[in-house]
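Lab meeting, item 3. Inverse folding demo.
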């Protein structure tokens, strides 16, 4: 209970942080609207992310406060849960095979990317394994600090992978003809005020419970689970207004783009080729497994692509929302990858990275 209380403690933000937040939101909204008007796939999230990312690289100190980030994640979770139906819930039994293949893909991708970083760019084994691990960035960062790894290089490689996937994946799917550039509306009706209040209360309660047990991405997944349960049981009809979903997508895009505010241009440029090369290796490995799943199962190709994309959970689920892709399938696989990476990466680093004695020396 103390942990929850501490996480909800409110401190009045400084004038500088308020101005930074407003600037981030204005730039993100402008970028999202430009992409939306241009009818580009995933317009709101991609446009917001690219606009904020460019401004951050240019030197603007853009950021979003934790309370706003948590609000955006809860809204995203509610929206994802609102597309749940009994039919989707019945499909969960078909996931073990694809989740097993995802675990194998994650293992191969990590080793392939790390081998590339070691052989081509001369990285040490520990830094290469941590940079090649897809997802769980907070855990990767902690391990990097403990093991004396190249933290700036790892941050660039991990961030560039998320940025490229979020920007390029919608366009690739649209060009391939498996996802429309303008996704259809996810719900036909807006929930009543009472249902919206019920959704908000249940989502916050579930998110706080998951946060208490240190569940990954607790704000988003807690809201998604609560919204899924209410919609799947038929207790709530309809979802959030369209503009609220738009706000959530712009917020996620701005959050991803603001990661560049903590990077110096010199650091980014120095590790750019390593980031692009390791990304290409990870995509090539993932593509092989996507092909296997697409050819051997009845799962939609677009669902498999987003579920197996080595990107961040929040970004990939946001894309699932805006591209009208099955959020249950995508969420189950990205959560499984997170758990696999969290459990396996420390062991991989211990077995194949530098010894602790080398780090201490």
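The presenter then showed the designed sequence:
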């Amino acid at each position: 209970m103390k942990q929850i209380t501490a996480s909800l403690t409110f401190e009045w933000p400084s004038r500088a942080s308020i101005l930074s937040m407003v600037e981030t939101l204005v730039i993100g909204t402008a970028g999202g609207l430009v992409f939306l008007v241009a009818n580009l796939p995933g317009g709101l999230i991609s446009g917001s992310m690219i606009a904020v990312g460019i401004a951050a690289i240019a030197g603007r100190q853009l950021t979003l406060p934790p309370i706003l980030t948590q609000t955006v994640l809860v809204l995203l979770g509610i929206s994802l849960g609102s597309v749940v139906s009994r039919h989707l819930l019945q499909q969960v039994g078909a996931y073990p095979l694809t989740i097993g293949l995802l675990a194998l893909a994650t293992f191969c991708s990590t080793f392939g990317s790390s081998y590339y970083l070691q052989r081509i760019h001369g990285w040490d084994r520990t830094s290469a394994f941590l940079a090649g691990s897809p997802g769980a960035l907070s855990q990767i960062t902690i391990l990097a600090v403990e093991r004396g790894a190249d933290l700036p290089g790892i941050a660039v490689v991990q961030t560039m992978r998320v940025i490229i996937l979020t920007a390029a994946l919608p366009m690739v799917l649209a060009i391939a003809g498996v996802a429309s550039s303008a996704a259809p509306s996810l719900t036909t009706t807006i929930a009543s005020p009472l249902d919206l209040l019920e959704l908000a209360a249940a989502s916050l309660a579930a998110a706080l419970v998951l946060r208490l047990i240190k569940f990954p991405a607790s704000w988003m997944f807690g809201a998604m689970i609560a919204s899924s349960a209410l919609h799947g049981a038929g207790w709530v009809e309809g979802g959030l207004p369209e503009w609220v979903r738009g706000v959530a997508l712009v917020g996620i895009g701005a959050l991803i783009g603001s990661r560049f505010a903590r990077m110096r241009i010199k650091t980014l440029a120095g590790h750019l080729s390593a980031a692009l090369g390791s990304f290409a290796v990870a995509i090539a490995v993932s593509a092989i497994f996507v092909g296997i799943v697409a050819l051997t199962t009845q799962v939609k190709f677009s669902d498999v692509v987003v579920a197996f994309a080595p990107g961040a959970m929040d970004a990939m689920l946001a894309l699932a929302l805006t591209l009208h892709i099955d959020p249950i399938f995508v969420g189950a696989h990205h959560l499984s990858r997170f758990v696999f990476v969290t459990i396996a990466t420390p062991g991989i680093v211990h077995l194949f990275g530098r010894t602790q004695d080398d780090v201490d020396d």
